[in-house]
Amino acid sequence: MAKRLSSRYLPGQRLGAWRKIKPLLDLPCVVIGYRVRPGGQKELLVATLREGKLTYVGAVERGVPGSVDMLPDEWERHEWERRSRSAPVVACPQRAQWVEPERFCLVRCHGFRPSGVWRDPEFRGWLDDLQT
Which strand (E) or helix (H) includes residue 104? Predict the structure, then answer.
């Protein structure tokens, strides 16, 4: 929380002098799988380095209904290299189509839940696209 120094706390009242500030993390991630949810919503399942080890951190949606779709339609543009084994490259509790860890993306989140999965992920772009 942040507040104007001269502001007072008044129980039950919301004042414009108090602001909730959420920390943001930008994480480089590797795609380990994808899935298409009912209704056609696409998600990427990704992992990132945590404590020196590649770890599953969650799924990031293809887009939010009604917003600009930030994720290019990789399923048409890019041939995903499916894994020869039917298991993900890291432990993952989800069911999905597993792919070789070849595509990297940047995801913004508000930290992690106690389970190790991120809070409120937002796809920011493909790393090879962001570097050029």
Answer: strand 104-109
- The 3-class SS string of 15-65 reads CCCEECCCCCEEEEEEEEEEEECCCCCEEEEEEEEECCEEEEEEEEECCCC
Q: How many CA within 13 A on the CB side of residue 38?
A: 0
DSSP label of 81? -
Average pLDDT score over residue span 41-52? 87
Count the domains in the chain. Answer: 1
Cα 63 → chain centroid: 11
> Residue 112's beta-bridge partner residues?
118
Q: What per-residue confidence (pLDDT) applies to 28?
A: 93
Counting DSSP H helices and E strands in the chain, the numbers are 2, 8
Domain range for 89:
22-131
**Residue 10's Cα: distance from chain center in Å?**
37
Tell me the whole-structure pTM to 2 decimals. Answer: 0.72
Is 11 contained in some domain? no
